[in-house]
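ERR on first pass: missing label on line 2. Operator R.T. fixed the label and resubmitted. Corrected input:
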Amino acid sequence: MLRAGLWLLFGMNLTPLLEAQPAPQMAGQLAARISSLLQRRATVSLDFQNLSSLAPAESSSFRSALESELRKTGTELVATAQPEWRVRVAISENPHGLLLVAEVLSAGNRQVAMLPWSTPLLADASPRVRLSQRAIWEQADPVLDFLLLESDAELLVLGATNVTSYRLANGKWTARSVASLTPSRPLPRDPRGRLQTAPGGFRVYLPGTTCNGTLEPTLRLTCAPGNEMWPIDPRDPGLQARWVTDRNMLELESPSIRFFTEAAGLFATNDNRVVNRSGESVPGAEAWSSDLASIENPCGLNAAVVAAKTGDQVQIYEVANGRAVASSEPLALSGSVTALWPVETRDQATLVVRNPKTGNYEASRLRVACAQ
Amino acid sequence: MRLPACAWLALSSLLFFPLDGATRPRYGGTLVVDLSTPITSLDPSESPLSLPLPIAETLVRLNSRGEIEPQLAVAWQREAAQKRWRISLRPKVVFHDGEVLTAVNAVPSLLAALKKKYGDINITAGGQTIVIQSDRALPDLLTDLASPRAAIFRKAENGSPIGTGPFRVSSWEPGRRITLSAFEDYWSGRSFLDSVVINMGASRGRSDIFDVPFTATRRILPEGTRIWSSRPDELIALVSADVQPVVWQALALAIDRPPIVNVLTERRGEAAYGLLPQWLSGYAFLFQTAPDAARARQMIAQLRLNPLTLSYPGNDSLAKSMADRIALNARDVGITLQPVLHGNGNLRLIRWPFESVDAATELTRVAAMLGASERSNSLDAARPEALYELERALLDTNRLIPLLFLPAVYGLNPRVHDGAQKNDSGALHLETIWVDP
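pass 2 clean. output:
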């Protein structure tokens, strides 16, 4: 049996939550280390270089902070050609993160001090107007889908290994309970799954496995092998598909087609095309990737599709006369799309991206509104 | 000749490969890989080289930050003295022949691997739990368990390994071809590819992935080929057999590395002054020095020197060119150095592939190679200064002169993509590759 203590000790290594150390704090620590290698009130020339991926502005800010901290220790920084001491500082990098390296040189003597530096993560790109994004949840493990229940006060997250329910309290999601998935087959390497409300609870559709879930009195899951048909588009309840076992694809019986996602009667297929029900390529959809979802068009009558695109973006398209035409500005995302699903709330769609900076899966709701 | 470990490391983990984020991975197809170097053994216990092929897996693995992650083990616990470790195996894992992974069938290959380092080690098995015990502390056990040498496998009647990895061996012609097939019941999800064919001994540049070896001749690549280059993952160095320290130091001062980098590797290599490349240690720049022929001449001016021999590996045109170049540098300061193919020269030019992304592990390996294991025994791997001090001490043994760090370079057909979604290093693994139809 997996012991909770062990999991905390070792399993958490999968998502190290290192506390970022601000530049002034690190500058202070490095200055203290350097000054411990110098004589009191030494005259020092300081050379500085950035060998890391740290942005020039941040590197420059660190240097200023270091100079200030060194002065506080009584060190006199000079630019003379013949100082008593030379200190060479580099911001370097290795697989563990940034590494501050200081060489203290005097009369043929060389001493070295090093400090690992956990840096703050860079800010994500900001989304733009018309198509808006509301962050819901993020976690280190994949998020395949999620449901917002009870007027958005309850959250149900489908992961690759479990379903977790959360309750909103004081603006924060608090975990209530977890139910493990017991898929009959290992999930595909590109794990996908769908979570849908059902009378008395919810259903989970996974490649090779279908599960019934209840929320009350406790969160419970009962899974069985097999791929049941399920409605893939709330705007077209008659359109039912099922997963293909061991694959990341869905299939329709009629017309017979295998695809990644569907929206407004268009299918993203595994030969990198977007086709209509007749299998014909859709003009204007050439830049779309494999993830599409139907969404309400609040400003017109044509069907609307939110499509993921190259370069970690999503964009709204209207489909008219068999052609897709962009009707919003692209919305920049913080990572590549791993799930995009339509939802029952008609002007929204579920989006999950994997943020390469944090490694986390970020679940959000996309919402479309007229731009006036 | 075996495939250099760096090539396997690279093939199984192509670092810094741009991810294809726009399109969902496609299942199916065969990936054809051409390697210029033949593979003569798939036996994991015999050599680490074959293991990074995704056939057999280890209990734990090192991620790109050098941290231990669960693999076939899901949990581990050590006693305070670190002499006894208890490891819990992942449930529902099966070998390629359908046999369920248990502690009992995991122990034989594990014991064989660990016995090589820990002679007194004892491993007991019960259900899904393995207990590893020794009379001495085993602080590095997890790192050892992450080594490809400690992979869990059984052997088929024909000798090929039966592992738990995402690919199983379909056919194997030593030195010529390996065919791997997707393992449908892989515990972490079936690979996208149906199969992988690795042709050896020729890299024609017409396959999906092919190595681009460093040779004296420039190679013309097919149109549209993407070049992928790893971080430097191999050290080329001189190792002394019996050279007196003062001559060794003079030779170290005589060697001019930039022309080797610029001309012989066409700027794809990096000059090496320390044992570990900058990306791995973060402090390699501290070792950088400039050649000083005048001082080298001065150091040996009073000595009467016999000619020395420098042996280099066969079938390695880069090594031969480097040996010739070093002989010229040596002659300029008054040292006669005769390059010889193979043999036991006074100096040997070696290729030293790195096997992990952990600086402490790699320094410990170099220390063992130099017969200086005692220097790394009490290494405090958490302190970067301790690593630096060990590296400095190993260089000061006057047994090794670093020359060059080399990356692995591969050509990739445009139809090759990476389907990894959760990949903290941008690494590409065979099991996450997918191909266009």
